[in-house]
Structure formats: C-alpha cells, structure tokens
C-alpha cells in the first residue's frame, strides 16, 4: 500500500491543526495552510522540491502578513475598565461631609466611604465630587 504525497501533506495539515486548537497559537494554522498548499502541488504532480518550497513560501508569507495585522488589531482594541478602575474619574454625590479624615458619598448607585484628596478640603452634603482614586474601600475625591 503506497500513499500519495498529497495525502501525507493533508495528514501533516491535520497534525498542525491539533496544536492550533490546543494552544491557540495561530502560527500552527498558518503552517497547516502551507501544508494544504503543498498537498495541492503534490496532487497536480509537482515534485518534492516544489512541494517543500510551496509549503515554506505559503507559511512564511502568511506569518509575515497576517501576524502584523493581528498584532495591530489587538493593540487597537479599546481597553475596558472594570472593577475599581471603572470608578476612577466618575462623579459622586456627597451624602455626609467629606474631609481629609472621612465621609460618605454615593458613587455608581452605592454608598462609599470617602476622604478628600487635599487634607484641608471639605465637601458638604449635596455637592458633586470627582473620584480620583480608590484606596481599599475608600474613594479619594476632589
């Protein structure tokens, strides 16, 4: 039983697809596409040198073109602020007098302990303040 070269290339493509799924490294997928291209060359009657050259050329071309595009898209994604980072920069309503030693504010629908950023600054109930930082469970406001 003699297996044609194009079948071996397809087996190689599947073999390269397995680590792609397991590791989520797209480079394996690019090598798998190169193996499929080499299988096409083999099926059309190309020699082993042509098959290897097509495999290398397609794989390298995909890595050279696709990786920079993917990296650029990953870098361009807006960063989503979550947790306490999402609260920084928001406005809050003073519920109890806030000074350098403490107080209470309503921030994002919840009541938080708060203290003024500047020790000498005082905020009275009803005033709007800006949250500049979260220190533990205390909002630092100005």
Description:
This protein is an alpha+beta fold. It has helices at 5-23, 26-43, 48-76, and strands at residues 91-96, 104-107, 110-116, 128-135, 138-141. A 5-stranded mixed β-barrel has the order 1-2-3-5-4. Helix 1 packs antiparallel against helix 2 (26-43) and helix 2 (26-43) runs antiparallel to helix 3 (48-76). The protein is rod-shaped, with a radius of gyration of 30 Å. The model has no long low-confidence stretch (mean pLDDT 91).
What order do the helices and strands come in, and which of them pair?
Elements: H1 5-23, H2 26-43, H3 48-76, E1 91-96, E2 104-107, E3 110-116, E4 128-135, E5 138-141
Parallel strand pairs: 3-5
Antiparallel strand pairs: 1-2, 1-4, 2-3, 4-5
Helix pairs in contact: 1-2, 2-3
Care to give the gist of this entry?
By secondary structure, the chain is of the alpha+beta class.
Largest sheet: 5 strands, mixed, barrel
The termini sit apart by: 81 Å
Shape estimate: rod-shaped
Percent range for β-strand residues: 15-25%
- The helix tally amounts to 3
Order of helices and strands: HHHEEEEE
Round the mean pLDDT to the nearest integer and report it: 91
Task: Tell me roughly what share of residues is in helical segments.
Answer: 40-55%
Structural class: alpha+beta
Unreliable parts: none
Radius of gyration computed on alpha carbons: 30 Å
Give me the side-by-side strand order of the main sheet. Answer: 1-2-3-5-4
The total strand number stands at 5
